[in-house]
Amino acid sequence: MRKSLLFLTSSDIQHPDANFSHHLLHELFKRITDEYNVTCLAPAFFGGRDIESIDGVTYIRRGNALSFSWHALHYIKSHPIALILLFNVPFLEFMCRRSTIPSARILVNMPTCQAKSSFSDPCLVFHPSVLMTLTKQGYHQVVRLPEGLDLLSPESTWLEKEKRPTFVYVSRPSQSKELFDVCQAFIASKQEFQAVQLWIIGHCPIRFDASIPAAIQQSIHYLGDIEPVERNRHISRATALLVPSHEDNWGMIVYEAARVGTPAIVYDTPGLCDAVQYGMTGYLAKANHPGALAAEMRSCMLDETTYHMLRYAAQQFSTTKHLHDLEPTFRDWLRTNTSDVTADR
Does residue 145 contact residue 124 with C-beta atoms inside 8 Å? Predict the structure, then answer.
């Protein structure tokens, strides 16, 4: 006899735009299927099955971005549910406040809705910086789970660095602003360091060649989509990884880079600042704009002592994150919040 959990999300692990958050949550859910029936309900997408089971987690896809809420509310009314978990579904978060079924929001970034009624919502967060910010804003039912991170790649070999100063960026198609900041920071660095080069890994729907002087374009190399092992080899050979995210980021790529001996330069955003321990295991930009990114790139090339210290500190910190720290804490939280609910037969 197991209780049923419903996970409502704007996209699931099979969606083309799925990020590390979706993968981590799936890894977490599949580990508790021995105790709970876990169902993930998300909008349909081209090529996705209407219903499928992945690692014991049932994935159901209904409607589109506009009609998904209707399908979700209909599902809630017609199925016995012990607890609803919500991820990136603002309207459903509002509707679930009126439901008798307990619910909780999973937050990996700062919520965009700041209505006073949301301050009493039970929330699950993973990063200390997010917990601190939400508490200051008035949220009073926030629970922080450990930052459980099973690194997707076991690769930990440190390769010899490129003879030229080399920076690498792993492109995210949904974040074109990041690519723009990377290119602008690289242009600024190129003015002082003529030998510097930039590698861009991943799919780039838009290349900002028009804004880049022709003399600099030849120092930017688009490597395209490559296998994780090959990607990590390029990252290991680079001087530093650039992660100029304006939104929350799990910092997964930061930890993977640290394992192969490459520190990251990140913006001061929730999640990323935790990934570099506020500058103790990586470079934290003083401001979230290309000029500050370029300043940290300059530090990488000029201060070798600090650079090597951060390389080793980042590698040591990356080894402290494991999923087995997260699972038992999550189980205990679920048992507490579903203790008054009758199990399904």
Answer: yes
